[in-house]
Fold these 3 entries.
Entry 1:
Amino acid sequence: MASKDERIAKIYEILSQNSQNITELANKLNVSTKTIERDLKSPLLLSELQRKGQSWSIKPVSQNSFVINMLKKLSLALGLDFYKRANKFLRANSSYLSDLTLFTDINSEKLESRNIDDILLLQSAINQKLQVKLNYKDKFRTINPLKIALFDGFWYLVCQEDSILKTFYLKELENIELLNTHFKLCIDVSNVLSNANSIWFSNAESFSVKLLINPQIAKYFIRKPLKTQRIIEKCKDGSLVIEIYANDKMQVKPIIYEYLPHITLLEPLWLANDIKQELQNYMQKLET
């Protein structure tokens, strides 16, 4: 026999699709009409229901409900431990029942409880501008923590070590300890992050990159422009010439490799030659 919560979830699912009266619901769930009447008065359903005559249905999804349900799905994509913590706040604003009209495919690694605790500890250090001692890649380090960042589905700590801007993979951090020494923020890390197309960034001087985008993929660069992207020319055949800025070649290479052969690196020449050499080496491996 289904539990009360399971039954209420099923009622929500049924009424989301079609309006039903109490007798119809009782027959579908194989319970008494009195049971259905009690279920419909449940706080989990009451705010979601509307009645017309003898029939019940779920109210049209409001804007607030959409936002809350989307946040639920995004938090679930980060792992069950994160979802359990987030849901404590989300339940205060909406029924726990999910919006059945939404589907999300967030390509993000899952956060376990230990990872969340590490993030909270690092957040405390960042807010207080406290230095942190930790073990990363079998080496104890003293760093200035700057930001927790999610890039391409992976979590990183953005920090300064010996005045150099670095990124450490969050799940490989060990023995995190907050020190009593404060540090001064000497870099606008938010600006650096907002202009980065990948986790491969630094505080080095940026260089200009010009790309020729073929008509087959031009729409993707219009729908979702790259960071710092500027369209230089819209060609008659539908192709684009765009310019972006990067401070590390690895901010550019993955973009090239993802869209080959429909993308051409025009400038800088040194980077074009570097990619050309890598492709030649790859082709030689295929031929052996």
Note: The chain has a mean pLDDT of 87.
Entry 2:
Amino acid sequence: MHYSLLFSRCAAITCYIFFNLSPIVTVITIISITVIYGLGTGGVYYIPWALYTFLADVDEVFTGRRREGVYAGSMTFAGKISRSIIVFSVGATLTHFGFQPKSHIQPESAVNAISWIFFGGVTVLALIAIFFSCQMTLNRKTHQIVSDEIDRIRQGGKINDAGEEARKTIETLVGWPYEQCWGNNVICKKMQSP
């Protein structure tokens, strides 16, 4: 909630100063931005955790082992590292533009920097996220193929009996030939040796 209020204030200042909007239009704009921001924030927190359960299945195809805990720990660590980098970068940027931490009135350069961080920074990070999410070939259809193949192998199926669609999908997701999946590769053998 604290971040939503901060974001709304920055958006209000941006609308009022840069676009010279009337107070009522500024309020409507802020409400609209806050709703969009709330939906986006929900997606930012929900989507990675929803996707990570599928990644554990792909990892099982590659390694032959279930390692959900490794993925949960990695995601938590990566989230903390990325947030700390963002906080540091924003702090360094604001300091560079003359932000006064204990002052109620900020220089114009600091106000402009805040506006550009919220507009430009968020836009750039969103575009980067969209780019990388478009690279992801794991979707409901491919995950179903992976799940069916995991079930087939668990029930005693042989690696050589894999269907062409399953073989092709798994090779695309894992990045290795199908015969080298299920722990049959140099990397997994090194993980298993003491």
Note: The radius of gyration is 24 Å.
Entry 3:
Amino acid sequence: MSLNRNEKEAVVTDVSAQVARSQTLALAEYRGLTVEHMNKLRVDARAKGVYLHVLKNSLARRAVAGTPFECAAEAMSGPLIYGFSQDAVAAAKVIADFAKGNDKLIIKAGAYAGKALDANGVKALAAIPSKEVLLAQLLGLMQSPISRLARVVAAIAEKKGGGAEEAPAAAEAEAAPAAA
């Protein structure tokens, strides 16, 4: 199905708007994937906030022209699916996770922070934990010294408190034989 000039302009405008909001681009060859697999990939991408679209490569090149993703333009050949995401790792993670379970989806390239990534670069980007996980790890790291200090103080208080309870009992035991 060929697009007329107005439809092509609309596609380029839509993709350019996504590019302007995105941090990451991931490209993968989808040759041989069934419609069922493509739909599952799209559902996964939508759930994680990734804009996933099959585009004509010439239109994709126009959409990324003059943006940090222009460095990936030379990799835009063949039947590709384009994944754009606002989260730095989401697009790479969605495509890499799906590629692990389906050998017909082949990661080709990507771009992040104005730098072109090869297939291994996209996989490395996908291996980075999400922002939420990194924040949770940082918070755990920050809480660790405070919680250790609280446990030590509680142990000292318990030790001193335990010694204080034993002292009156020992005093009563000493007083009882003296009274007899």
Note: DSSP finds six helices and five strands in the chain.
